[in-house]
Design a protein that fits this description.
Length: about 150
Amino acid sequence: MSDSRVRVGYAGGVFDLFHIGHLNVLRTSKAHCDYLVAGVLTDEMVIGAKGFAPFVPEDERLTIVSSIVYVDQAVHEDVPDKAEMYRRYGITHVFKGDDWKNTPKGDRVEAICRDLGIELVYLPYTVHTSSTQLRRAIDAVAPAAQPEAS
């Protein structure tokens, strides 16, 4: 007997300095679900989590992500409670890079998914490109280009 339930996936992230790793996550996530919601962290959420503002403002990042063919719906991730986001959109599958596996933040997401009956799928992390690496390269060339946290 097959599961006729619609698989609603969620791939959340900052999606700053959009690169091939972001595209890989969205493409692979869509391959594992029927409908993909991409959560784009608000600037406020990024500052709270990472201590610095993204280079690209949240509305521009949302526009970029919503334009990706694999994304059915792009939304602002505007609350720190992941469970609230997952409930809000009826998520059945959550996608994270495998760099989250066996980490404190990964363990928290695993617990939330387990409690809500959501399947957590770890996807291969694109090692050769990351926003952190891009930020370092930009800072090395133009340290003044770094946006200030307000």
